[in-house]
Design brief:
With about 200 residues, the protein is mainly alpha-helical. The protein has ten helices and two strands, in the order H-H-H-H-H-H-E-E-H-H-H-H. Strand 1 and strand 2 form a beta hairpin.
Length: about 200
Amino acid sequence: MFLRTAAAFCAATVLFLTSCGGSRASVVNPERAASEDKRTARDLAELFVLLADPGIKDEERFAVVQTISDAYLRTKDYGRLVPFLTGVVERDASDPYAAHYLFTVAYAYLQSGARDVAALYFDRIVKNHPDLILKGESIHKICLERLLELSPSPVRRIDYRRELIARFPDSVDLGVSWFLLGKEYERIGDWDAALSAYQKYLPHL
């Protein structure tokens, strides 16, 4: 079963990549473009069949989901990407790659201009899903940094920055972080907390 699944996945991926590779010619050759669209749809259908295999392993499942997601991202088809990935997570909330899938969903909402919805997904990832390393960096760290940019509430930003400092002290600028935390406390009128943050900032001058 593993060999059949892996072989089928490889074949479908090769077909999919091949079909994408000719997209440049679609501008001058509508018939070829239509043919390639049909081939892409067929290859995606094969990937969905693989995804439905009850015997698929976590690593294989991730590879198939990622290939489908990349196809939607490549064409900016967020209308299909978002329900596809949220559906994957809803069917198996314990999926070890759930944080990665929801991070892609948040990215799609950002690209669509839905900043508030993106923030909800970034927050959900940090609170409900184990951390993952994405291109050498913690997904939770990236989410917390995005939440600091997106949240209009100083109270929420305080929570996010404190967590960023506590969990990732070696990968953030602590001087800047403590200073900005102090500014947030000033905004809500918590002068004692602001003074404490500034005192922690001073050694980093």
